Amino acid sequence: MSKQIKHFLPIALDITDKKILIIGGDEDAYKKLKILQRSTNLIEVIAPQIISWIKNSGVVYHEKQYSKEVLKDYFLIYSCVEDPAFVRQLMRDTKEAGVLLNVHDQPDFCEFISPAIYKHSNISVAVSSNGEDVYESIRMRNQLKDYFENYQLQKQLIAN
């Protein structure tokens, strides 16, 4: 059986006043949380066990088991749970609830992916590898970041 190739459309979503849920309470969930906090503070975390870094991050967290009833309150769901049976159930639940799902490090199960982003003022540059090579996306984002920061520095020097 051949693997279905996914085609992700790079877009920017308006998340103003929209809550995002992270399912999972480990280091991977914390890393995702820190990335999301660059864009919003309307993030909540749910997991039976949550590490202290998340608890001390300032977000609302629920130290309990996931249940599909919580999905109705959120715009986007990020899962940082590696259990395949759980992921399959979550995929069914989010589809039924009409909520988009991202499964950490498993693009085959994602309905959306998050690109590597560089943001300066009102300009954002996103680099995506269609979920195929995250590290290459990050490397290219970092090259663009260096370019834009050097450009800004040159503009400041010229202005002075």
Uncertain residue segments: none
| Cα end-to-end separation | 62 Å
Helix content: 25-40%
Shape, principal axes of CA atoms: globular
Number of E strands: 7
User: What portion of residues belong to β-strands?
Assistant: 15-25%
**Rounded mean pLDDT score:** 91
H/E element string?
Answer: EHEHEEHEEEH
Radius of gyration: 18 Å
Structural class: alpha/beta
Major pleated sheet: 5 strands, parallel
Structure, described:
- The protein contains four helices and seven strands; from the N terminus they run βαβαββαβββα.
- The longest helix has 26 residues, at 134-159.
- The N and C termini lie far apart (62 Å).
- The chain is of the alpha/beta class and 160 residues long.
- Helices cover 34% and strands 19% of the residues.
- It is globular.
- It has a five-stranded parallel sheet with strand order 3-2-1-4-5, with helices on both faces. Strands 6-7 form a two-stranded antiparallel ribbon.
- Strand 1 (20-23), helix 1 (27-36) and strand 2 form a beta-alpha-beta unit.
